Amino acid sequence: MKLATIGLAAAALVVAGAAQAQSAEDLLKKSGCTACHATDKKIVGPAYKEVAAKYKGDAKAAATLADKVKKGGSGAWGPVPMPPHPQVSDADIKAMITYVLGLK
Length: 104
Fold this sequence. Notes:
Layout lengths: L1 H29 L17 H8 L5 H11 L18 H12 L3
Helix pairs in contact: 1-4, 3-4
């Protein structure tokens, strides 16, 4: 019985994780991020996987990226500036950044 309960709990976590990832992907699309970014290739801005690699191990990465999403930025990835996105909620930004930084 315990083993079945543990198995069900593990399955629920996997499903929840997949739903969260899907939710973050939906947020990226809804917020317009996918017009300039993709998971594994550069479009106008860097690929999400490039961002994750650049900030791997950086304890301040989430805060830095949240600030860049809200205020925009330039020079970090080339000459094309990233426009500000002040209309995106802090909760949505956190979910999207968590997803991006978790990519390998």
